[in-house]
Amino acid sequence: MSSEILTPVLPESVADATVVTWSKKVGDSVKQDEVLVEIETDKVVLEVPAPADGVLTEIVEQAGATVTSSQLLGRMTVGAVAAAPKAEAAPAAPAPAASAEPQTAPAARKLMAENNLSAADVDGSGKQGRILKEDVQAAVAAKPAAPAPVAAAPAPTVTVTASGSRMEQRVPMTRLRARIAERLMYAKQSTAMLTTFNEIDMKPLMDMRNEYKDAFEKKHKAKLGFMSLFVKAAAVALQRFPEINASIDGNDVVYHGFCDIGIAVSSDRGLVVPILRNTENMGLADIESGIAGYAAKAREGKLDMNDLSGGTFTITNGGVFGSLLSTPILNPPQSAILGMHSIQKRPVVVNDQIVIRPMMYVALSYDHRIVDGQGAVTFLKTIKELVENPVRLVLDV
User: Taking every annotated instance into account, which residue ranges of this chain make up the domain Lipoyl-binding (predicted)?
Assistant: First the structure.
């Protein structure tokens, strides 16, 4: 039974995708759920598995082709078994002298070489089966045309220029990188983006983490990190400041009654933002498990469209790369994004005394069309207060 291999259903925001590579060739055996082909969208690379055991019988769209939702990629025969490779024929017994190869005229021999023919391919009409030039011409005319080679996938055009010891290489953007560039330019050009800053004394949070991280990991099978506490603080603050958790749709403001927070993750293919949904109802263990799961899927290239769709707020942590301060760019249509940075010991004033504390700069970029400066500053100050006094996260005060 023949089965069609189709492009997965793409979200409305994704118009098309590109076939990256086929992992099987026509005639290969495949197992159910084995990856047949990978396609790349603007957001993620998707794997198309085999629906059942069988044999791949046709590839309709080669690597490099642009495809749309539910488009035919290829076909397979369910339940079939790939043909075994042909065994080498046993060497033929020496032919008797009477069946020696017929003589070939010189002109015919030259024409046979030009057309890749042997004496066995030509019926000689001369005396004692002698092969004449006319016999070769007839064999050439009757020879079936060679099948046209399958067009190779268009490889990315790489241009290398050199001048002495100075060399440049020009490589086209991947679909994902081009989409990231497009969205960032859209955010800069279509929003009234503004950034406010603050700094957080991380000592109380670090002390709490050092005291309870072993017991936390033993009970929940998850490590206690800083990101989960910032996600929880953001979820609490988003409920207090609904305009930060809103988005603009035309002339309407959409206020979301849930806190779906995206966590920016760097992968080999570029920046992706998987979504933790309903964080207002999640505990720290749930958040840590969700973040760890998404990080693993990003490293393995296993994120799917559902993981990346939606989101009402985003947190990005440049501190893992050593960033001290930055202005994060909005992730449209969201109205705000929180940027975390590296923790550094600095002299600060506490109770009129100069002390050394581990400090982190935080930044909130927001769309000034929907969020006023007072709301943005107060929102960031709320996160600061929650993180500096983690007990407030537990008591929700």
Answer: 2-77
Q: Which amino acid is at 215?
A: A
How far apart, in whole angstroms, are the C-alpha atoms of residue 377 and residue 393?
A: 19
Answer for the pair 57, 76: CB distance below 8 angstroms, yes or no: yes
Q: Give 122's DSSP letter.
A: S
Please identify every residue annotated as catalytic: 368, 372
Cβ atoms 49, 4 nearer than 8 A: no
Q: What are the distances in angstroms from CA 241 to CA 101, 148, 195?
A: 94, 65, 17
- Split the chain (397 residues) into runs of 10 and give each run's mean pLDDT: 85 75 88 86 79 89 87 87 61 48 63 74 72 73 56 55 75 78 85 95 93 92 91 96 94 94 81 91 93 86 83 93 92 94 95 95 96 96 94 72
Region of 322 please: left (phi>0), alpha (psi -120 to 50) or beta: left
10 Å CB burial of residue 22 (0-12, 13-18, 19+) is buried
Does the pTM surpass 0.85? The reply is no
| Cβ 44 vs Cβ 303: under 8 Å | yes
d(CA 4, CA 282): 41
